[in-house]
Amino acid sequence: MTKSHIAIMTSGGDVPGLNAAIRAAVRAASFYQYKIIGIEKGYEGLIDEAFLPLHSGSVSNIISKGGTILQSSRSERFKEEKFRQIAYQNLKKHNIEHLILIGGDGSMRGAQVLAKESGINVIGIPKTIDNDITGTDFSIGFDTATNIAMEAIDRIRDTATSHHRLFFVEVMGRNAGYIALEAGIATGAEGIIIPETNRDLQLLYDTIEQKKNWKNSSYIVVVAEGDEIGGAYRLEKTIQQKYPNIYTGVSILGHIQRGGSPTCRDRNLATKLGIASIEAVNSELKNVMAGVIHENIQYTPLENIGSRKLKIDDNIIKNLKILSK
Ligand code: ADP
C-alpha cells in the first residue's frame, strides 16, 4: 500500500534550528516510508507551486546551519481566499494529504484556515525566538537567541566598565520579554525592561540611586524592543534627563539574534519535534502542534495555539531586587 504524501515548509521569521527540524522530519518520513516534499518560501511557495522533492541525502550536513534550506516568508497573498484556493489546488495536484508547518503563532493561525478550507491535515512545529507561543515550554530558536544576546551583553559590559557608563542594550521581543529577562539575569544586568510589567522602570531608578556614587561601576540595562517605553533610545533620553551626570550608550542587537549556528539545546529540541511531527501523521493525529511540555512530547489542537504571555510574579520581582543589592 502506498502511504500518503507529506509536505514540509517553514513560515514567518527565521530562527536558528529550522534546518535541524527539517532534517529530523525528512529522516523520520523516510523511516516511516512516507514520500516528503519541501515547499520553498512558506505560504508564498504554496501559491507559486515552489515544490522540491526531499530525501535523506538532501538534509545531510544542515543540522548546524542557521536559516532554513527551504527559505521562509510572510505572505500577504495567503490572507486572501483566491490565493489560498490556488495553494490548495497545488497541494492536491501533488497528492499531499499532510503538511508539516514550522512556524510561529501567526503561521499556526494560517494553518487553521488551511486545514478547515482544504481538509489537508496540518501538523505544527513551534519556532520563535520570543518563546511566546502556547502548547510548548520552549520554541525552536529561543535558546540560541538568548545565548547570542548573553554573549553580546558580556562584551558590551567590558566597554561599559572601562568607561564607567550606563549601556542600554535592546534585544528582540516584539510583545514578550522572555529574551530580555533570561539574558538580563544571565549577565547580571542592573535593569531589565520588559513589556509584561510597568514596575521595571521604578526598579531601575532604585538601582541607579543605590549605585550612583560607586566610582568604577558599570550599568547594563536590557530593554525588550516591544516595551511600552518605546525602545532603548527613548529610555536613554528619559534617564539622561533625570541623571544628566551619567554617561550613557545604546546598542541594538537586532537581527544577529536570529542568525548563526543553533545551540545544542535548540538542535535537540528541533530534532525531537521534527520526529514527533511525522509520528503524529503516522498515529493519524489531525491538526495538532507538537510541543515539549515538562520534557515530554505533547500534541495540542491547532485551535488552542496562540500567543503566550510571560507571567511576572512577585517572586521574579523579589529576585531582581535581591540581585540589585
Ligand atoms: P510567525 O509565524 O513567525 O508568527 P507571522 O505572524 O508573520 O509569523 O505569520 C506568518 C504568515 O502566516 C503570514 O504572513 C500569513 O501569510 C499567515 N497568516 C497569519 N495569520 C493568518 C490568517 N488569519 N489567515 C491566513 N494566513 C495567515
Salient structural properties:
single chain; 325 residues; alpha/beta; Rossmann fold; 2 domains; seven-stranded mixed beta sheet; four-stranded parallel beta sheet; 10 helices; 11 strands; elongated; binds adenosine-5'-diphosphate
Q: In which range does the helix fraction lie?
A: 40-55%
The first-level CATH class name of the largest domain: Alpha Beta
How many domains in all?
A: 2
**Shape designation:** elongated
Strand content: 15-25%
Query: Could you give the order of strands across the largest sheet?
Result: 3-2-1-4-5-10-11
Total DSSP helices:
10
Which CATH-level-2 architecture of the largest domain?
A: 3-Layer(aba) Sandwich
Order of helices and strands: EHEHEHEHEHEHEHEHEHEEH
What distance lies between the first and last C-alpha atoms, to the nearest angstrom?
68 Å
Mean pLDDT: 93
**How would a textbook summarize the main sheet?**
7 strands, mixed
Named once each, the bound ligands are: adenosine-5'-diphosphate
Task: Report the structural category.
Answer: alpha/beta
The Rg value, from CA coordinates, equals: 22 Å
CATH topology of the largest domain: Rossmann fold
The parts where pLDDT drops under 50 for at least 5 residues are: none
